[in-house]
Write a structure and sequence with these properties.
There is one protein chain. By secondary structure, the chain is of the alpha/beta class. The protein is built from 8 helices and 11 strands. The protein has a single domain, classed as Rossmann fold (3-Layer(aba) Sandwich), CATH 3.40.50. Helices cover about 45% and strands about 15% of the residues. The strands form 3 sheets. The protein has a 7-stranded parallel sheet, sandwiched between helices. A two-stranded parallel sheet has the order 7-8. The longest helix is centred in the middle third of the chain and has 29 residues. The N terminus is likely disordered. The structure holds NADP nicotinamide-adenine-dinucleotide phosphate (NAP). The site of NADP nicotinamide-adenine-dinucleotide phosphate (NAP) has 30 residues, from helix 1, helix 4 and helix 6. InterPro entries: NAD(P)-bd_dom_sf, SDR_fam. Keywords: Oxidoreductase. It comes from Zafaria cholistanensis.
């Protein structure tokens, strides 16, 4: 172990969770704090992180994962705090649902930048610390959109397929450092902001979940994330696909009128 990680005992885990200001990331911070972990909660909106920190005892670090300076500052903050053994990359999202023929370049660039480049930048920054720990874990939150495309999903599919491809390469590259790489691929999850940010208005966002008896909640996904990262380190749930029962496949969702 390095001095950066020596503060961690075998039973005391410590994680960076990105995307922590809302939705699945916020729920994951709560789930890991409930299990006694030290958690660095990362997103751009500082006020939301501060409120979460005050409530849960997490450490708030406002940062844009796509900005090199912010990622450097995050790494310095975490290093000064004693380091981590687990990186949970949840920050991401979708913009637009246009077919490829009408794709808005700025939406595609945004999706690639946050889901792929941002995840890469944070992972790259923390890899030396995770390798040095000796029993590190990286968990990437991709999506079922990373395994099956759908009409209007092209940009999001492309970004999540790419994030998944990077995750698979990372697992192969880092196994020699005893790094565990987990991918969680959720289907329909009802969070406050995901569909709203994607589609831009509340009515369109509401339709995504309309009539679905029980979409997954952020808490459902957070429980699975927490389970996967708290298993003994030699156990790797390397790919976890999870959907609500009503969603048998991307194109087969039971909706009651
Ligand atoms: N909801 C679903 O149906 C669903 C299904 C499968 C997979 N997913 C994936 O699961 C993840 C979380 O989904 P969600 O529904 O919880 O999304 P969400 O509610 O839209 O939350 C996205 C989070 O990412 C953060 N974020 C966005 N850009 C960032 C940046 N540049 N730097 C740092 N943080 C950034 C946001 O915080 P700030 O705005 O404060 O920065 C927010 O905390 C995403 O990767 C999403 O693609 C979602």
């Amino acid at each position: 172990m390095t001095s950066a990680t020596s503060a961690l005992s075998a039973s005391a885990h410590s994680a960076v969770v990105t995307g922590a200001s809302t939705g699945i990331g916020e729920a994951t911070v709560r789930a890991l704090r409930a299990r006694g972990w030290t958690v660095y909660a990362v997103a751009r909106r500082a006020a939301r992180l501060e409120a979460l920190a005050a409530e849960t005892g997490a450490v708030a670090v406002a940062a844009d994962i796509t900005e090199d300076g912010d990622v450097e500052r995050l790494l310095a903050h975490v290093t000064a705090g004693g380091g981590i053994d687990t990186l949970v990359n949840i920050a991401g999202g979708a913009r637009g649902a246009d077919p490829v023929g009408e794709a808005r370049t700025e939406d595609w660039e945004w999706m690639y930048r946050v889901n792929v480049i941002g995840t890469m930048k944070v992972t790259r920054a923390f890899l030396p610390m995770l390798r040095a720990h000796g029993e590190g874990t990286v968990l990437n939150l991709t999506s079922t959109a990373a395994i099956v495309s759908y009409e209007g999903g092209g940009g999001y599919n492309a970004a999540k397929f790419a994030e998944r491809g990077m995750t698979q390469a990372l697992r192969l590259e880092e196994v020699g450092h005893n790094l565990r790489v987990i991918e969680v691929l959720p289907g329909l999850v009802q969070t406050e902001e995901f569909a709203l940010n994607r589609l831009g208005d509340p009515d369109a966002a509401e339709k995504v979940y309309a009539g679905v008896a029980k979409p997954l909640t952020a808490g459902d996904v957070a429980d699975v994330v927490a389970y996967a990262v708290t298993l003994p380190h030699h156990v790797n749930l390397d790919e976890i696909v999870m959907r609500p029962v009503a969603q048998a496949a991307a194109h087969k969702v039971i909706r009651n009128a």
